[in-house]
């Protein structure tokens, strides 16, 4: 990949995440898109690797982050009308490389 980094993007199927994946791939980086299985990943570039999981599941995060140089954490809970607002504090990730 010409010196590019291996990166993972959480929230990869969202508006910001999808555009970030495309820009990173176009810049020559190896991109791993982290998304829920229920998400529509059809808009991602073909070169992007998919890793399925949930940002509240530490095991799936560890698997997705394995071998990566950087993480772009753009997953977000954006529905302010959620019946359980604690989800906003749950979607936090502590990453150690």
Automatic annotation (TrEMBL):
<dbReference type="InterPro" id="IPR001509">
    <property type="entry name" value="Epimerase_deHydtase"/>
</dbReference>
<dbReference type="InterPro" id="IPR036291">
    <property type="entry name" value="NAD(P)-bd_dom_sf"/>
</dbReference>
<dbReference type="InterPro" id="IPR051783">
    <property type="entry name" value="NAD(P)-dependent_oxidoreduct"/>
</dbReference>
<dbReference type="Pfam" id="PF01370">
    <property type="entry name" value="Epimerase"/>
</dbReference>
<feature type="domain" description="NAD-dependent epimerase/dehydratase">
    <location>
        <begin position="7"/>
        <end position="78"/>
    </location>
</feature>
<protein>
    <submittedName>
        <fullName>Os03g0184600 protein</fullName>
    </submittedName>
</protein>
């Amino acid at each position: 990949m010409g010196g590019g980094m291996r990166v993972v993007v959480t929230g990869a199927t969202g508006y910001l995440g999808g555009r970030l994946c495309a820009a990173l791939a176009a810049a020559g980086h190896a991109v791993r898109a982290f998304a829920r299985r229920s998400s529509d990943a059809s808009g991602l570039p073909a070169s992007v690797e998919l890793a399925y999981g949930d940002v509240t599941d530490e095991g799936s995060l560890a698997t997705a982050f394995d071998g990566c140089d950087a993480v772009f954490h753009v997953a977000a809970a954006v529905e302010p009308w959620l019946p359980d607002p604690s989800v906003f504090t749950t979607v936090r990730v502590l990453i150690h490389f």
